[in-house]
């Protein structure tokens, strides 16, 4: 099958990894004219003007933009461009599949099977949606939750701008939450230890050994600080699940992981979820 992915950003880059080997990716189509004529970071496949789609005669166009309103308007745009063949969207996958959650469940199962000791933690909690799953999967473990609960700190955003001019992060993003909102979502709130404020300043001096950490602060500075703080606390066999490692939107997170892996001579295991998560496993 010959396919065109409409959307060359994060969704398109990860969806390209999902294609079977007998599927030929002809191009990424994108409505951003600045990208036309460039090579995508995915195997140098070209980014084209969507008006070129009918001439390439794909067997299918797969709309891989993550924004659902944008996906709807692309569905309406395709027939106007003269393309009337099969069209796919990410909707069926998003409705019944959450690969990051699947990885969390499988990792938790291994940690329980091996009876690894240790508490669990998340840096970057926001409204606690992922935190609630961690708490559900580790009901008998102390759960440390690190966040400002007022959104991205200004100094981390400024550091991100120094690192990459393409960042769209702003101070206060993800600030529409509260500790109480998160506590109300947790199935076992009695296990929660909230560490509210700027990380790493909020790191408890008596942080116990950890079996599992979810690292999801999006930006370079807290990602690197989190890795440096949590890795030494990880028990043998313990894992750090890192969101945004292969993110086109938050490049700083991947940079921080690569720096840390160089420092510690570690190999990262990239995952195939839409947001490009990755795992660091502490061997005995
Ligand atoms: C993408 S959100 C986390 C989403 C959450 N893990 C989920 O899956 O629902 C990123 C969070 O990181 C937090 N954050 C970023 N840098 C931080 C820092 N230096 N200290 C504390 N929190 C930070 C932000 O406040 C924000 O709530």
Please, could you describe this protein's structure?
The protein is of the alpha/beta class. It folds into two domains: 2-95, Rossmann fold (3-Layer(aba) Sandwich); 99-281, Rossmann fold (3-Layer(aba) Sandwich), CATH 3.40.50. The chain is built from ten helices and twelve strands. It has helices at residues 10-18, 53-56, 68-80, 91-96, 99-113, 129-137, 154-163, 179-185, 220-230, 251-264; strands spanning 2-6, 24-29, 47-48, 60-63, 87-88, 119-123, 143-147, 192-196, 210-215, 234-242, 269-270, 278-281. The strands form two sheets. Strands 8-7-6-9-10-12-11 form a seven-stranded mixed β-sheet, sandwiched between helices. A five-stranded parallel β-sheet has the order 3-2-1-4-5, sandwiched between helices. Helix 5 packs parallel to helix 6 and helix 9 packs parallel to helix 10 (251-264). S-adenosylmethionine is lined by residues 124-127, 129-130, 146-148, 151-153, 156, 174, 198-199, 216-219, 222.
CATH H-level name of the largest domain... which superfamily?
Vaccinia Virus protein VP39
For the largest beta sheet, what order do the strands appear in spatially? 8-7-6-9-10-12-11
Oligomeric status of the shown chains? single chain
Instruction: Name the CATH class of the largest domain.
Output: Alpha Beta
């Amino acid at each position: 099958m010959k396919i065109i992915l409409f959307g060359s950003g994060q969704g398109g880059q990860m969806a390209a990894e999902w294609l079977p080997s007998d599927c030929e990716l002809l191009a990424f189509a994108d409505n951003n004219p600045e990208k036309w004529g460039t090579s995508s970071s995915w195997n140098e496949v070209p980014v084209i003007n969507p008006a070129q789609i009918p001439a390439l005669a794909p067997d299918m166009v797969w709309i891989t933009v993550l924004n659902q309103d944008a996906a709807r308007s692309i569905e309406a745009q395709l027939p106007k461009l003269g393309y009337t063949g099969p069209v796919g969207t990410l909707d069926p996958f998003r409705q019944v599949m959450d690969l990051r959650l699947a990885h969390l469940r499988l990792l938790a199962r291994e940690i329980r099977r091996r009876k690894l000791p240790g508490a669990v933690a998340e840096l970057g909690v926001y409204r606690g949606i992922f935190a609630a799953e961690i708490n559900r999967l580790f009901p008998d473990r102390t759960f440390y939750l690190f966040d400002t609960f007022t959104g991205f700190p200004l100094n981390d955003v400024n550091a991100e701008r120094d690192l990459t001019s393409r960042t769209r992060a702003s101070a206060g993003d993800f600030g529409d939450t509260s500790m109480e909102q998160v506590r109300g979502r947790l199935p076992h709130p009695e296990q929660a230890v909230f560490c509210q404020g700027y990380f790493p300043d909020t790191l408890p001096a008596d942080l116990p050994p950890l079996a599992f950490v979810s690292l999801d602060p999006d930006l370079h500075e807290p990602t690197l600080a989190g890795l440096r703080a949590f890795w030494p606390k990880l028990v043998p066999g313990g894992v750090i699940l890192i969101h945004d490692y292969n993110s086109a939107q938050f490049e700083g997170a991947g940079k921080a992981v690569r720096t840390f892996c160089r420092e510690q001579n570690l190999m990262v295991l990239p995952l195939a979820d839409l947001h490009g998560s990755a795992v660091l496993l502490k061997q005995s």
